[in-house]
Input
Amino acid sequence: MEIKKVFVVGAGLMGSGISQVCATAGYDVTMRDINDEAVARGMKEIEKSLGRFVKKEKISEADAKAAAARVTGTTEMAAAADADLVVEAVFEKLELKQDVFGQLDEIARPECILATNTSAISITSIAAATKRPDKVAGTHFFSPVPMMRLCELIRGLLTSDETMKAVEDWAVSLGKETVLVQKDVAGFIANRVGLAMFGVAISLVEAGVASPQDIDKAMKLGFAHRMGPCETADLTGIDVLTNAMKAIYNETQDERHWPPELMLRMVTAGLLGRKTGKGFYDYSSGEQVAYWTV
Ligand SMILES: NC(=O)c1ccc[n+]([C@@H]2O[C@H](COP(=O)([O-])OP(=O)(O)OC[C@H]3O[C@@H](n4cnc5c(N)ncnc54)[C@H](O)[C@@H]3O)[C@@H](O)[C@H]2O)c1
Output
């Protein structure tokens, strides 16, 4: 089935980014959130981000205007009725996602594919809220969506080959590189591997083996990572990583995925990383300054 119209549920960080890349690639996009303020915020983010692309001369002013004009904001779920593809990017809560998918299943045409941008929730459990689990897939974009090239494509237990092919073609048409996650495992590929690395790196800080600066330096110079695990953890948010690790642990019951105690204490202490000014580094001066000593 040809995808022309995309309906995005959620106009937050990810929903607005996904709407922007779809519109830039020529799709007609309707972006839905629960109230006018949230929709307006999402539309503003798209305009701001397109403006940055114009400034960097990555897109012409006319193309940016045309892309912005292809996005319509709404608070109505009913507007999903003529979509070929829906991408859900609401808060990371199973009950909320199941509720959204239950509604979409009633509203969207039977051939419409329903995709979720979940970071850690099982695709199969979201699909279970619909009568079309063969048409439900995971399309996991990374933040900021217009900049990050990866989109993980996740097959739920009942997702059809046809659906996987359709979401792959669509993601490629957005200029993304895709990886196929053939089984619906917690954390998919990137978070499963990445979180394990963060966990080990933070355990080494906790044990006093090395400073965050030296761990980051080792991974950058030894493995050619662009950023080290401790500075990446600060950027993502220690709370976000802790929750993601707990989610993988809850699914697998494998203690290797349980966050180190240091992470739990940092969350309690409000040392969440860049967003609170301190994490493994101190950002209060506007620069990333060494803070943790071992
Ligand atoms: N932030 C990231 O770096 C990142 C990366 C990959 C995946 N994700 C996943 O993407 C999803 C969205 O994350 P985000 O960071 O954009 O969150 P966000 O908090 O920025 O945005 C979520 C939006 O969903 C809206 N919403 C809530 N219920 C809704 C409903 N019923 N209908 C329509 N809109 C509704 C909220 O009002 C909010 O604007 C989550 O599942 C998250 O795990 C996030």
